[in-house]
Amino acid sequence: MCITMLAVIACKPKNPAEQPGGEGGESMFDYIPPIAINDKSVADWDKLDKSKVSEATCANLPYFPGLKKMKVYADSVCIFYMLEYDPQEMASHTDVDGMHIYINADNNTETGGFWDLFAPINKGDVDIMFEGALWDADGNEFSYTPTFSTWSGQTNGEGWLWAEKPVSNKVAGSQLVGDNIIEGRLVLELIPFTFDKVAFEIGVDIYQNFESVGLLPQGDRPDGDHIGRAKKLYVKFDK
Questions:
Q1: What is the spatial distance between Cα 94 and Cα 148, in angstroms, rounded to a whole number?
Q2: What does the pLDDT look like over 172-202, one tens digit per residue?
Q3: Average pLDDT, rounded, for the chain
Q4: For residue 8, how many other CB atoms are within 10 A of its CB?
């Protein structure tokens, strides 16, 4: 989907008065995405107010070293992200090489689960997860069109316990910039889960053949055999 059609197709309000912007504000029909994901450039990020952009960088001694930096910005319409990765860690480009996005959408530590990759231990709070490839079977760039799942395990629990839910293929999109940048967005209106109105937390891992090779946020590993779990990145909506 062309990002320039976002306001008309993906974010067309059912009732403009009930949507962000609504009466007395900017209509979604007039929405101009602050980040373009079809221009093979990340220059748009330099135009944002840096105080509204959340960032995470790779630990000094990471267990999964493939992701170097993550930036996330969210307004009332979309969540935008930029990931810098190590191309040597993502050397294979097939349809089993891609990305997971984990979100504590309701900003509530008493719901969700999956503390397997993130802190605090024994207190998982991931509500929703996206999973999808970044390349097709022939190694061609593939705009992120992920599956969508909600946590289905024990509250605050661990394990790969997800319930896949139907979602529009317009919910996400991405582009690869150079040989080490993933830039993309998620359309909030098309995510079938209620977000907190103020903020959310997000974490990302990239994988090769469904095996994680990069993770952010991530702390230094406590020893050679364990993941250095860090809290997910806190992102406040810019509304």
A1: 20
A2: 999 999 999 999 999 999 999 999 999 999 9
A3: 88
A4: 11
**Cα 68–chain centre separation:** 15
85 touches 206 (CB < 8 A): yes
- With a CB cutoff of 8 Å and minimum separation 6, the contacts of 186 are 78, 79, 101, 130, 171, 172
Write phi, then psi, for 46 (nearest 5 degrees). Answer: -70, -15
What's the CA gap between 188 and 169, in Å, rounded? 13
Helix (H/G/I), strand (E/B), else coil: 65: strand
Per-residue pLDDT tens over the stretch 194-207: 999 999 999 999 99
Say how many CA atoms lie within 13 Å of 135 toward its Cβ.
17
CA neighbor of 145 nearest in space, from 167, 164, 160:
167
Domains, in order of start, for the chain: 35-236 (2.60.40)
Cα Rg, the chain, nearest whole Å: 17
Query: Quick check: 214 and 64 in contact, CB under 8 A?
Result: yes
Q: Is the pLDDT at 164 greater than 70, yes or no?
A: yes
Comparing CA positions, the residue from 118, 103, 153 lying closest to residue 230 is 118
State both tokens at 207. 């994988």
